[in-house]
Design brief:
By secondary structure, the chain is of the alpha/beta class. It has a four-stranded parallel beta sheet. A four-stranded mixed beta sheet has the order 5-6-9-10, with no helix packed on it. A two-stranded parallel sheet has the order 7-8. The radius of gyration is 15 Å and the shape is globular.
């Protein structure tokens, strides 16, 4: 299975050239501020990408996907009818590969899909099935590609602890 992975397009998805692949994965921040126009534009773009399997998680900029229930009903119906899979602390199997996705990040500022470190965020990581082969998160684990522009390690220690116990895990994409 050929896979392309993108992340943090922040509303600039139309500039992305997607190669011929079997699976496209987006690791969150589909928008810059989670407005209806930005999320809708991403959805239209994703519907028209010629890839048989498309999976994504939200990120800390994707406020609309966290808070607006009326839009979410429409959003989910569009996904289901267009072969797009949005994972929000859920799993799916594609070509026999178990994939789990979560938009959560440890609290860092006032953004979407955040939880306090410790038990608050750990409950999301506890939802990751032990037989997960590909894990998609927006947050990085602690001290792995998690350095911010302010030189702060913003990754999640609890996520790191969780992935060390996932013995079937082949890829963690974030």
């Amino acid at each position: 299975m050929k896979v392309a992975v993108i992340s943090d397009t922040h509303g600039q998805h139309e500039k992305v050239v997607v190669p011929k692949v079997d699976l496209l994965i987006h690791c969150g921040d589909i928008s810059s501020m989670g407005t209806f126009a930005q999320v809708n534009s991403f959805l239209d773009w994703l519907i028209n990408i010629d890839v048989p399997n498309k999976i994504f998680v939200a990120g800390n900029h994707d406020f609309l996907l966290e808070n607006h229930n009326n839009f979410l009903s429409f959003f989910y119906s569009q996904l289901n009818t267009n072969g797009i899979i949005y994972l929000r602390d859920q799993s799916v199997k594609i070509n026999g590969v178990k994939i789990h996705g979560s938009p959560m990040s440890p609290r860092y500022g006032n953004w979407a899909f955040m939880a306090n470190r410790g038990n608050d965020i750990k409950k999301y990581w506890d939802k990751i099935p032990i037989d997960t082969e590909i894990l998609i998160t927006h947050s990085p684990p602690a001290k792995i590609l998690d350095l911010t522009t302010e030189n702060i390690n913003a990754g999640c220690e609890d996520l790191l602890n969780t992935i060390t116990g996932l013995h079937n895990l082949k890829y963690h994409l974030f």
